[in-house]
Amino acid sequence: MASSLTCAGVIWAFLSFLCAAASCVGFFMPYWLLGSQLEKSVSFGTFRRCSYPVRDESRQITVMVEQCGRYASFQAIPSAEWRICTVVTGLGCGLLLLVALTALMGCCVSELISRTVGRVAGGIQFLGGKCSCGEGMGA
What we know:
Largest sheet: 4 strands, antiparallel
Keywords: Membrane, Signal, Transmembrane, Transmembrane helix
Helix content: 40-55%
Protein name: LHPL6 protein
Low-confidence stretches: 135-139
Membrane topology: Multi-pass membrane protein
InterPro entries: LHFPL
Mean pLDDT: 77
Number of strands: 4
Subcellular location: Membrane
Order of helices and strands: HEEEEHH
Strand order of the largest sheet: 1-2-3-4
Oligomer: single chain
Distance between the termini: 45 Å
């Protein structure tokens, strides 16, 4: 297999893929915030939650659903800030994954990645990293 990457480029490709995978796993897991409610342990992320309260209309009380799941709709995400965070973090993870997979393909295909393409890809990774890390932590 011919490669269009230097040794540093191959290391960058594999580290990029590992970082993109970690970002995507973190995005999909509901453990961004941990706490307790109604004496039960709860956690939630941008679009997933575990152990959440639901109003039981037949008994007129609030009960805890002790399971993990995503919100029923985009509008069901608790606040506008969390909805924005979901979109921005998802876009950031997508950009990171796109660049990482392209870099991995550069390990196998000759003349796929030039110096200019590598610089542009690094810039996209920087933007993706700022989107997925910068916005998610501030909300």
